[in-house]
Amino acid sequence: MPLRLPDKLPAIELLKRENIFVMDNSRAISQDIRPLKIVILNLMPLKITTETDLVRLLSNTPLQLDISFMKLRSHTPKNTPIEHMMMFYRDFEEIIDEKFDGMIVTGAPVETYEYEDVTYWNEMKAIFAWARSHVTSTLYICWAAQAGLYFHYGIPKYPLKKKMFGIFRQYTDGSHLPIFRGFDDVFYMPHSRHTEIRREDIIRSPGLSLIAESPESGVSIVMGRGGREFFITGHLEYAPDTLDNEYRRDRDTRDDVDMPVNYYRDDNPLNPPLVTWRAHANLFYSNWINYYVYQETPYDINQIK
């Protein structure tokens, strides 16, 4: 698909090497098409890696997407060059008057903190509230999923005795929702987290639907407002080597790091990862863009409410 990205974004060249069709703004403006506007609030430490992971998944649709990146004014990232942030990211205050067809909010390495103790929590609350009236459909990932459920629905999170780390079987609720169109009975999702949300809290909330879960990793995907919100506790967007990089990074600094489960071939970290989630990840994002963004958003984007 023609993805419209900021000129010179590093992800453009990386994805072209994978034969994924992307275009920069200079080419996209020559097409007489109303692109879908997607904004990504990227809270992950390695911004360029996350940008590439998400853009790769968003590329699997024939629709033209205009991708923007948002940053927080109340937080300065330590692992991404300031030049990159200044060139490709805008503060929330700069886009507060705009409307977007879709929004993605990533995870963040703050899950062990209470929400109110996160230094940028007040700004996150403002963004969450803004999304309700300025975005057609929003995907919340990992910590953002927990934070969004807490802010919008009062759902608490709970610490885990042991890190949920690896690839886990997931089952849909069997309702044949468009978000799962084309899915098999079982799909797989990477998880890397120290906290969880619980089934009983989701079921008690009348505004939420638990649409996918796992006997091992628990709540997987929650839907709110008929698909205007999706809360994903894992990381469908992860590249094949992401968990491997995390495992080796942590193992070099601590001696209590468990190997990610169901990840390496023959459960041997000397072997490469066995990728079991990529097809459903692409399908999930394509279904979201098609059925919950494109099919639902008004042609006049200013009519989003």
Automatic annotation (TrEMBL):
The keyword Transferase applies. Gene3D superfamilies: 3.40.50.880. Its main location: cytoplasm. The active site is at C142, H235, E237. It holds the Pfam family HTS. It comes from the Bacteria. It is found in: Cytoplasm. Coiled coil: none annotated. Transfers an acetyl group from acetyl-CoA to L-homoserine, forming acetyl-L-homoserine. Belongs to the MetA family. This is Homoserine O-acetyltransferase. It comes from Xylanibacter rodentium. The gene is metA.
